[in-house]
Write a structure and sequence with these properties.
The protein is α+β, with helices and mostly antiparallel strands. It has one domain. The strands form two sheets. It has a four-stranded antiparallel beta sheet, with helices on one face. A two-stranded antiparallel sheet has the order 1-6. Strand 3 and strand 4 form a beta hairpin. The radius of gyration is 14 Å and the shape is globular.
């Protein structure tokens, strides 16, 4: 038996009218069919100012953190990967 955790990929295009933090909150909210104000504050997971600074200056690599039950991974090329952190055993697949 193996456990499958769904991953979703998005290409992150900077919208200079909103902060990176606001965009991440909106992306997680949209993906989970939740209103942004129903999610916990981002600062409970990561310092939003530090996130802004790192993403704006990043030329390679990635930043990864857990937010609202989702692992958020932001690569230097703008790709955002969301991985749901389902409780162990909640999504099952038969096999190996």
């Amino acid at each position: 038996m193996r456990f499958i955790v769904p991953k979703r990929f998005f290409h992150f295009t900077m919208d200079r009218s909103h902060s990176i933090s606001q965009q991440i909150v909106r992306l997680v909210a949209d993906d989970s069919a939740t209103e942004p104000d129903e999610l916990p504050p981002l600062y409970h997971s990561i310092d939003p100012n530090a996130l802004e600074t790192i993403i704006e200056s990043m030329s390679r690599g990635h930043v990864q953190f857990l937010y609202a039950g989702v692992t958020v991974r932001i690569a230097a090329d703008g790709t955002v990967e969301l991985t749901a952190n389902a409780p162990l055993g909640s999504t099952k697949s038969s096999g190996d």
